[in-house]
Design a protein that fits this description.
This protein has 2 helices and 4 strands; from the N terminus they run βββαβα. The protein has helices at 46-55, 66-70; strands at residues 2-8, 14-19, 33-40, 57-61. Strand 1 and strand 2 form a beta hairpin.
Length: 71
């Protein structure tokens, strides 16, 4: 299984991972995301792969700070 990695066009710190061949997640506009890479499961973080398996996607933010966690 391969995973598709996307970067949000307006907020590039946000990343979205979906399964290859799956429908884009409801609630997300595909036009808002730029495809960046396809990776094999062996080259994908196990927590990311698990979330995609369970929910159909994994959404995360690069550059999260400890202040963000305190909010």
């Amino acid at each position: 299984m391969n995973f598709r990695f996307h970067v949000h066009r307006a907020k590039p710190a946000y990343r979205l991972v979906t399964a290859e061949g799956a429908a884009f997640p409801s609630g997300a506009r595909e036009a808002d995301w730029r495809f960046t890479a396809s990776r094999d499961r062996r080259d994908t973080n196990p927590d990311v792969a698990r979330l995609v398996d369970e929910t159909g996607y994994c959404l995360f933010k690069i550059g999260l700070t400890f202040d963000d966690l305190a909010d």
